[in-house]
C-alpha cells in the first residue's frame, strides 16, 4: 500500500482523530509563539528566555541557544506568563551575560502579540540586568540521564497523541533526549530519533546490539509538530547533551521523518557541538506526496504535514542545509520501502552531502529489525566515533554506494 493510500484510509477511518486535532487549538491557547530577531553585524551571540525576576521569584532559563548573522531569528513556544528575553555576545564563552559584553534585554508581557517580531539591538550596559549563573534550567526541553525504553511516556498511545494533539503533548510531556542505559559521561553518546508516529521502542533491537563504548539516548517529541520548530529544538537539545558529555563526539541514528529533522538540525547546532556521525534511514528528504494530499483534503491539518508537503519552507531550508565539515554522513535507504519512494530517500542534495550510501532489502519499518542494518550501523558508528577519539575525521568526502542482498 502506498503512503497516499494509507493517508486516504486514515482520513476516512479517523474522523475522531481530526476532531482531536481541531480541539488541540485549545491546548495551543495555553502557549504563545515568541519571535525574536537579533541585529548582529558579525559573529554569534547567545540568547535566553528567562522567567522570574531574581527577587520575588527565582530566575529560570526556559530556552537558550545561539544566533548569528546567518540565523538571526529565534522562535519559541512558551507559557502565557511574563517572560524576558536576553541576547549577549558571550565573548568569554561562559554562557552568561557579563559587564564587558554587549547585550540587550526585553520584557515580553502576558499580552504579547503572537504575530509580532521583536528586534533586539545589542549595546553596552552599566551592568547585566540578570545574574544567570544561579538560574535554574526548567524547559519544555528535557535532557534526562535516567530512563528506559519501557517508560510510560514512550507508549504508543502517547506517540499518537503527539501526532493528533501535539500542543497537548508538549504541555504534558515536553520534548527531550533520554539516556536509556546507565549514564556514564565517559561513554560516547549516540542519539536515536524516531519518525512520524514513531516511538523510541522501535530502536530496541538496534540499541541492544550497540557496543558497550556507546551511551544510547533516544529522542521523544510530538511528531505532529512543525518540523522547523522541532529542528531548532533538537539542535538546542544536542547542545545540552554536549554539556553532559564534554569533549565527546556524538552520533545520530535517525529513521524516516527523524532523518529530515536531524539533517536540518545539524545546520543549526552551536559550533562546540561535535556531531561526528549522522546516519539517516529511509528518510523522506524531499517531502511526501501523502502530506500534500493531507494538507489539500483533510478537514484539519497536522502541522508536520505542512512541513513535508512539496514546496514547503521547511523542505526549501532542508535542501539548502550544509552539514558540518566534521560530520560523517551515511545515507541509508530501504529498497522495498512501501511508504517513502526511493527517489524521496535519495535526493541529489543529500547524495552530495553523503560520505556513503547503502541500501537494504527491507520495508520502511522492517528495516529497523534487519540484522544486516544492525551490523552495518554498529561498525559505522565505531569507525566514525571510536577512531575519532584518536584521529580527526578525514576532510574530503568520497561517497561509497552499496546495497545489501541479505
Describe it.
By secondary structure, the chain is α/β, with parallel strands linked by helices. The protein has two domains: 34-136, Immunoglobulin-like; 141-387 and 398-403, 3-Layer(aba) Sandwich (Rossmann fold). 30% of the residues lie in helices and 25% in strands. It contains 13 helices and 17 strands. The strands form three sheets. The chain has a nine-stranded mixed β-sheet, sandwiched between helices. A five-stranded mixed β-sheet has the order 6-5-2-3-8, with no helix packed on it. Helix 5 links the parallel strand 11 (188-193) and strand 12. It is globular, with a radius of gyration of 21 Å. The relative contact order is 0.11.
Strand and helix map with partners:
Elements: H1 3-13, H2 15-28, E1 31-39, E2 45-51, E3 60-67, E4 73-79, E5 83-88, E6 103-108, E7 117-121, E8 136-137, E9 141-144, H3 156-164, H4 166-173, E10 175-179, E11 188-193, H5 204-208, E12 214-220, H6 227-244, E13 250-255, H7 257-265, E14 275-281, H8 289-297, H9 303-308, H10 313-320, E15 328-334, H11 342-345, H12 348-353, E16 356-360, H13 371-386, E17 400-403
Helix pairs in contact: 1-8, 2-4, 3-4, 6-7
